[in-house]
Amino acid sequence: MSELIKKQVTDAKASMDRAIEHADNELNKIRAGKASPSMLDDVTVDYYGTPTPLSQVGSVNTPDARTIIIQPWEKSLLAPIEKAIIAANLGVNPQNDGIIIRINVPPLTEERRRDLVKKAKGEAETGKIAIRNIRKDANEKIKKLKSEGVSEDEIKVGEAEVQKLTDAYIIKVDQLSDAKEKDIMTV
Question: What is the pTM of this model?
Answer without folding.
Answer: 0.71
